[in-house]
Amino acid sequence: MGLLGGIARTAVVAGTATAVSNNVSRRQSARWADQQAQQEPQQYQAAPPAIPAQADDMDARIEQLEKLAQLRDQGILTDAEFQSQKQQLLT
Q1: CB-based contact 39:49 (threshold 8 Å)
Q2: What region, left, alpha or beta, does residue 82 occupy, with left being phi > 0 and alpha being psi -120 to 50 degrees?
């Protein structure tokens, strides 16, 4: 085998190694992204605030409603969750 044959073989081996390495990197990046995507929703889920069933004091109810509105405005509670919690508080 001459000099050109050795250079050609080295180029093929190097190209194959690069292609395999890039494939592994892409696969690993995709796995990490999937894992992170699965973990993120769990990290940001907050339990709805505890609301007293029958609040005797109107000021306490108003304060609770304001807290619920803040949670809704921050995106922690959905509108449906807010309405549900509001109904429980007011009944």
Answers
A1: no
A2: alpha
User: How far apart, in whole angstroms, are the C-alpha atoms of residue 10 and residue 30?
Assistant: 30
In 3D space, the residue among 79, 86, 9, 74 whose CA is nearest the CA of residue 46 turns out to be: 74
- DSSP letters, the chain, are --HHHHHHHHHHHHHHHHHHHHHHHHHHHHHHHHHHHHHHHHHH--PPPP--SS-S-HHHHHHHHHHHHHHHHTTSS-HHHHHHHHHHHH-
Total residue count of the chain as it appears in this document: 91
User: What would the pLDDT profile of 44-72 be if each residue is shown by its tens digit?
Assistant: 556 666 655 554 577 888 888 899 889 88
Q: Is pTM, for the whole model, over 0.90?
A: no
